[in-house]
Amino acid sequence: MLLFQNGKIQVRKLAEKDKPLLTKWLSDSAVLKFYEGRDYPFDIDKVNRNFYGDENHVFRCIVLFEGKEIGYIQFYLIEEELKATYGYSEGNIFGIDQFIGETGYWNQGIGTLLVKSMVNFLIEDRKADYVVMDPQAKNGRALRCYEKCGFHKVKWLPKHELHEGEYQDCWLMEYKK
Fold first, then answer.
1. 92/78 Cα distance (integer angstroms)
2. Which partner for 78 in 2, 14, 93, 176 could form a disulfide, CB atoms 3.0-4.6 Å apart?
């Protein structure tokens, strides 16, 4: 089921047929360097547990560019406890996480188009007041991409994410409608 299209980018709901794609992408050390960690490669069982569970509040999607599956994106409504942790008291706040799994599509502006398109979808379709992300502070390429998309660093999150055996500092980044 197609959620939206913006030019050459399409985002559709994750399907059963996507399990081999996720397994391929999430066993690639280049992808894992930035998403999940190289010490945490996925096999089909781990893909099933992590992407096909019953977390109904997470909307999992496949990203297509010119009709080819190239990546993954998910979005979710931020729940009250996490809102408080992040310092929000009100508003319709969505979080997003994404990666381009086909590394040949990196550094071409596709991630920027994807993030801008998802933000627009969430604001227009889901009536988001804010869209937030919490990338690792050391991921300069991602931080630059998100800033190009209109996100701003709003809160330092020390030792926020376990990645490759160590807790990493992250930035809470926000796009405000």
1. 8
2. 93
